[in-house]
Design a protein that fits this description.
Strand content of chain A: 15-25%
CATH topology of the largest domain in chain A: Enterococcus faecalis V583 fold
Number of domains of chain A: 3
CATH architecture of the largest domain in chain A: Alpha-Beta Complex
Oligomer: homodimer
Largest interface: A-B, 33 and 33 residues
Helix content of chain A: 25-40%
Number of helices of chain A: 16
Structural class of chain A: alpha+beta
């Protein structure tokens, strides 16, 4: 009976209203925030319980994470998609995110496809292109299924140039298209004459000049370059000004030594110097090389891809191979350009979340305090985001360190189990496209991967576990 | 008598041993660190007391600081010292720091002078050059007296190329020599054939190519460039990797459009791309332009220059014009290259502390957490240094902001009164030269301006005050 004689000391876990009632009645209560995993879904909770601390899962994750850590992405060259990407068909278009049919695609992705069809010469104008696009004669495939990644709409057509990145440690190759710059760009769904003219120049001139320059420079190791950019305020997703400058500093002497004509060199240097996001696509291919190194480890709950097609957000996990786990793509609460708001925005779009999957982008925001001018928030938020991602990742990447956090490695190797267990979802820095085709970028901001993707992934992984013995 | 019945509550200001004695006897005492201004020198203390909160001094400082804030340093061009720097004589050598005679100079400065004499063709070899150097036939002058600044030994000889920076707001010009790169370099006292060959190339080729490129690019505004570099991890004293990259990104397209030959462009781009400190000298000239804007305001205690000749550390103050206040130059406690220690070091050397005078370098260390790999300490120390400098400065420069401190402006406008009052001395990030001529750089680190410079400056300024009325 002593309990009733003493002052009540209450620690309330979960629903805050219980604690509030005690405080309202004049008592004292400390509130601990907690919610049951997977929004209280019992099936997923049970799947999670089987996976947590399971020695086979732990061993698989150690193996997958070690492979990611040892990856050495190297920029090897540049080529045309049709002759470079294995399996790329003649009437095929690659797009960002998990697979999706034409009729279901968001506005900017359809807009980009219309542009790509005209670029390829498969149709004369937008009307003809749209007709062809919905005719069933074009094969649409996910970039990720072809070792590729593309920002925003992520359209890669056969005659577009692509970066070629090789993992020097494990040997696999990844690809990405080339960055067009900000404003009106195909990746944001714009497809007007100036967009197509620039893409034509990129395929003809830019590709050739960069190819001869890379022959002179030789392969460029990307991890040290990204590591240096992290020390210069980039997170190599939405901030690439340092990485682009470092890349240009590496490339310019090679360009000048190459056989490219002086006017071509001037044009190319001017183009790269005028686009602080030029390195983004190289960063993405490097990140895919790093996460692909961790693919296919049976029972590993490490996330190997996060990608959005503007309708669905999808993730892949090492232990479940090429299977996508999807949920509706969220809208992005960000900084909108004057005249636009969230009402104008397409849902989250693009393969660029591969940077977060590799521990960069939003996960490395502590390296890039100045990015808050672009995506919103304060420098303290940037550090808080990185700190929080430490709760859902397998380790710290000692090759990619963050000065503002005492040179700790960036949190990396998203563990789907921990996402579901903590309810902390991966943070993503992203650009925002207008929801209608042909408009372009209207802002940038921060969003979170949907919990359901991870819940479904955890559920699938648990099904692969051998039956519990005596449990 | 109540005092003796109560528990003793002690707040001890100053000498800690009083508090320690109470604690040792079982009592409680809180210690407040404090020391009398100017190490307890009563004369200086009285001078300080007259200056603190003096309305004329406050008004003068507001005027000087506003002039500093409004300065707009612009890189206008490049020229030869002899035809560019007003008053530069034919047999004159400029050096870093306050004026000093040959016989008193430190080893690296003498080494650099020997090299400059051979470079100018005034002597055939080191022995001849040394003989000429001590003959009295060479006029040695302080860079600062000619509107110039030079890092480390800071030797500027008549046929060296110099950057020309103009303050777009106030019209005055400043100058600096060109950065040779790390390792064996004249500024660290090295004077071997490879050093002189490079200096010859810089005067002949580099100067001409940069001159035509600057004609194409037009004048380059330096404050926005420096502001951007601060957002990319530079403090533009010992870390200039971002600023150099941004400068090259600006210059490369102009170089390619200029009439310079392709091989010359390649050589120059390669040289700049290979030297992450290339921007330092431009930064220094920009900083001198900003602090020179604050010169000559009667009764202002704002510091307008800090410079070291390797023997003496000197400062200038707005209210006392061109007069130097000096104290022995300190040794630098830093990170030494393998095989070297503080026993091998020359005392603090160079005009580069003009960056700290302008609120950059050590004052802006919060912008450059990665610099601790070069000068020692931790990223938290970097933020602490910037925070501490806020106690001795007149304001925050809103044009030069620090992301890690919530985009606060960098603390700037050193108030000599506050230095003496608080005992907090300006922090300086600096390179370290070997004490003997001809060796070169042996490390980098952090040092502090000597308090005595500021104490003497305060004393002199008080003497300019009108006699106290009725005080």
């Amino acid at each position: 009976m002593k309990l009733f004689d003493e002052d009540l000391q209450v620690l309330n876990v979960g629903l805050a209203s219980f604690a509030a009632a005690i405080v309202d009645a004049g008592g004292k209560a400390s509130q601990i925030e907690w919610a049951p995993p997977a929004h209280g879904n019992a099936t997923i909770g049970r799947a999670l319980a089987r996976l947590v601390n399971h020695q086979d899962v732990e061993a698989a994750n150690r193996k997958a994470y070690a492979a990611y850590l040892s990856s050495q992405p190297i920029l090897e060259g540049i080529g045309l998609a049709k002759t470079t990407i294995p399996g790329m068909g003649r009437r095929m278009l690659l797009h960002a995110g998990p697979p999706i049919a034409w009729a279901l695609m968001c506005g900017p992705m359809q807009g980009a496809i219309v542009g790509a069809i005209i670029l390829e010469g498969w149709a004369e104008d937008a009307a003809g292109a749209r007709k062809l696009a919905e005719s069933g004669k074009i094969k649409y495939e996910s970039c990720h299924d072809y070792g590729a990644v593309g920002p925003m709409a992520g359209i890669i057509s056969p005659s577009m140039p692509v970066w070629i990145v090789r993992d020097g440690e494990h040997g696999h190759r990844t690809f990405s298209n080339l960055n067009e710059g900000l404003g009106k760009a195909l990746r944001f769904g714009a497809n007007g004459p100036e967009v197509l003219t620039r893409l034509g120049w990129m395929a003809a001139k830019l590709r050739k000049v960069l190819a001869v320059a890379l022959e002179v420079s030789g392969p460029i190791e990307l991890k040290p370059l990204i590591a240096q950019a992290l020390h210069m305020g980039d997170e190599v997703h939405n901030r690439n000004v340092a990485a682009t400058s470092l890349f240009l500093k590496r490339l310019a002497p090679a360009l000048l030594k190459s056989k490219a004509s002086r006017s071509d060199v001037a044009e190319v240097v001017g183009f790269i110097a005028g686009n602080d996001h030029f390195f983004l696509n190289i960063s993405m291919a490097a990140c895919k090389a790093m996460t692909d190194a961790a693919r296919g480890v049976r029972l590993s709950s490490m996330v190997t891809a996060m990608a959005r097609n503007g309708v669905e957000f999808g993730i892949r996990m090492s232990g479940t191979g090429a299977r996508w786990f999807t949920a509706p793509a969220p809208l992005v609460d960000g900084l909108y350009f004057p005249g636009y708001s969230i009402a104008d925005a397409a849902p989250d779009l693009g393969d660029s979340a591969i940077t977060e999957t590799a521990g960069l982008g939003g996960f490395a925001m502590a390296a890039a305090p100045a990015i808050v001018n672009f995506v919103g928030g304060t420098p303290d938020d940037a550090i808080a985001n990185t700190t929080q991602m430490g709760h859902i990742t397998l380790g710290r990447n000692g090759g990619l360190t963050l000065p503002a956090m005492g040179f700790a490695g960036t949190p990396s190797g998203i563990d789907a189990r921990r996402v579901v267990d903590t309810g902390i979802c991966p943070v993503i820095n992203t650009g925002i496209a207008h929801k209608e085709a042909g408009v372009g970028q209207i802002g940038a901001g921060i969003t979170y991967a949907p919990l359901d993707c991870f819940a479904n992934a955890v559920s699938a992984l648990a099904a692969d576990l051998p039956a519990d013995r005596g449990g």
